[in-house]
Design a protein that fits this description.
65% of the residues lie in helices and 0% in strands. It is mostly helical.
C-alpha cells in the first residue's frame, strides 16, 4: 500500500482538519483538500517540537537588540559632542546599551545555532524559558529606564 492509499484509508474514519484552511478531511478520496485544494501528505510529527516558544525567544531578543542598537547610536552623539565628557548617567546608560546589544546578539546567534536543542526540551520548559526570557528582557530594560528617569528628576 502506498502513502496516498494509506492517507485516504486513514482519513476515511478520522476527523482531521486541513492544515491550511481547517476544513474536515474525513472521507477524502484524493490527497488534496476539497475546500482549498491544498496538497495533503502523510507524515509524522511531534507536539514537543514547537516553533512558538523558540520564535518568542528569538523575537524578544531581536526587538530588544533593535531598540538597544538604536539607543546606542543615539547616545553616541552626546558622547562624541561633549568636550569635557558626558555626564556620568549618560555614560552608564550608553554602556548598558552597548553591553546589552552585544549580549543580545550573542543570544540570537545561540538561539539560531541551537534551535533543535531548544525544541527538544519538554513543552512546558520551552514555554517557561520563552516567557522567562521575554519577561527578563522587559524587566531589565524597565529597571534601567526607571533608574535613568530617577537620576535626572
Amino acid at each position: 500500500m502506498d502513502d496516498t492509499a494509506r492517507l485516504v484509508d486513514w482519513l476515511a474514519d478520522a476527523d482531521e482538519p486541513c492544515p491550511v484552511c481547517g476544513y474536515s478531511l474525513r472521507g477524502i478520496t484524493a490527497p488534496a483538500c476539497p475546500e482549498c485544494n491544498a496538497r495533503i501528505e502523510l507524515g509524522v510529527r511531534s507536539p514537543d517540537r514547537l516553533v512558538g516558544p523558540w520564535a518568542m525567544m528569538l523575537i524578544s531578543c531581536a526587538v530588544a537588540f533593535g531598540f538597544d542598537g538604536v539607543m546606542t547610536l543615539l547616545f553616541s552623539v552626546p558622547i562624541l559632542v561633549f568636550q569635557a565628557g558626558p555626564p556620568l548617567p549618560v555614560v552608564v546608560l550608553y554602556s548598558f546599551f552597548v553591553t546589552a546589544s552585544l549580549v543580545l546578539s550573542l543570544t540570537i546567534a545561540g538561539l539560531l545555532r541551537w534551535r533543535v536543542s531548544v525544541q527538544r526540551l519538554p513543552r512546558k520548559r520551552q514555554w517557561l524559558v520563552a516567557w522567562g526570557m521575554a519577561g527578563g528582557i522587559f524587566l531589565i530594560h524597565a529597571a534601567v529606564g526607571a533608574w535613568y528617569i530617577w537620576v535626572w528628576r
